[in-house]
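Session log. Operator J.P. requested a structure for one protein chain; no other inputs attached. Running the standard single-chain path with token output.
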Amino acid sequence: MNRSILGRLTARSTDPSVAPPGCDAFYVLSPVPHLDSGTDWATEAEPYRQKVQAYLERTVLPGLSKHVVSSRVTTPQHFHDELLSYKGAGFGMEPRLLQSAWFRPHNRSEDVEGLYMVGAGTHPGAGVPGVLMSAKALETVLPPLPESGVARAYAQGTGVPLGAR
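Structure written below.
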């Protein structure tokens, strides 16, 4: 099990709908390899969840097991099948240092002229803040759009004119 686990408690005080009264919701993220690893998530998901729970119980949350009422596991297979993520990679590529932050593909391609990229798989990284920061970074490297009816429609927030489709 990868020990670089992040946990976050979602407090009922900020959103009472996340758990019944007297309970709370707990989210754990444990980076795992994408589907090329050959892991059979149909058989490995629950044993892996139990290992993560045992690790948390030993290290930071004594007694966790006796308080868990329900759990749900999201695997790379789910990312692939339900979210159409390439190879089931939840964060764009593998969760390794040399594929994170500055090491991710940059917003302006270094190989293909005129190719610009944005999203979880590009610099600065995954998650909603990373994707939004990626969009802001892309904004700084994009050349100005040529003036056209389509560009004017987007600039004015009206979308693509019907005649331009």
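Operator note: Residues 1-90 form one domain.
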